[in-house]
Amino acid sequence: MSLRYLARIALLAAVCVVLRYAFAGLPNIKPITALYFLLVDFEDLKGSLLVMSISIFVSSFLFGMGPWVLFQILSFTVVICLWYLLYRRLGLFGQSMLALLLAFSYGLVIDGITALLYQMPWWTYVAAGAGFNLAHAWSTMLFYPILYFILRRLYHEKNLLVYLRLPLLSF
Q1: Which residues of 144-171 are buried (b: 16+ CB within 10 A; e: fewer)?
Q2: What digits encode the pLDDT tens for the residues 88-102?
Q3: Cα dihedral 74, 76, 80, 83 sign
Q4: Exposure of 32 by Cβ count < 10 A (0-12 exposed, 13-18 middle, 19+ buried)?
Q5: Which residues have C-beta within 8 Å of that of residue 154, sequence separation ≥ 6?
Q6: Which sign does the torsion angle of CA 84, 87, 88, 89 carry?
Q7: 69, 30 in Cβ contact below 8 A?
Q8: 3-state SS string for the chain
Q9: 27-72, pLDDT tens digit by residue?
Q10: How far apart are CA 94 and CA 69, in angstroms?
Q11: Cα–Cα distance measured from residue 41 to residue 145, given in angstroms and rounded to the nearest whole number
Q12: Cβ neighbours, 10 Å, residue 36
């Protein structure tokens, strides 16, 4: 890995931590899941998984550390790998719908793991968190196209990068 790549990963992870903290008052309404999905396309799978792992670990210092941090990383890894396998065949609208389904799936996966940890019936834990999972899924679907156009400009329009003087994001 080059130093430029590592610096880009660190900056993107910092952006995710800031976004997660900025949206902390809104339960499960955060743009970072959409950003993780988009980084698979604009960076690569490894870069997206690195940004996700670093941002969740660092933000756990702000929101609390516990076994759920590992569960979040494992659940996001499963969902991002599924995204990697499926997103290329779809247009922007289809990708937004896939982001909705996978964000909801993330909620089901992490709820299932947490129910096992606390030895609760799976369906009660999933039913109790359904509203939060739906909010997460819908917000991911809504943030996806917005962030897509922002990242497309940052990654593909060289004139914007020269104007903003962001050499770490240019190729």
Answers
A1: bbebbeebeeebeeeeebeeeeeeebee
A2: 888 899 999 999 999
A3: positive
A4: buried
A5: 160, 161, 166, 169
A6: positive
A7: no
A8: CCHHHHHHHHHHHHHHHHHHHHCCCCCCCCCHHHHHHHHHHHCCHHHHHHHHHHHHHHHHHHHCCCHHHHHHHHHHHHHHHHHHHHHHHCCHHHHHHHHHHHHHHHHHHHHHHHHHHCCCCHHHHHHHCHHHHHHHHHHHHHHHHHHHHHHHHHHHCHHHHHHHCCHHHCC
A9: 888 899 999 999 998 888 999 999 999 999 999 998 889 888 999 9
A10: 30
A11: 13
A12: 25
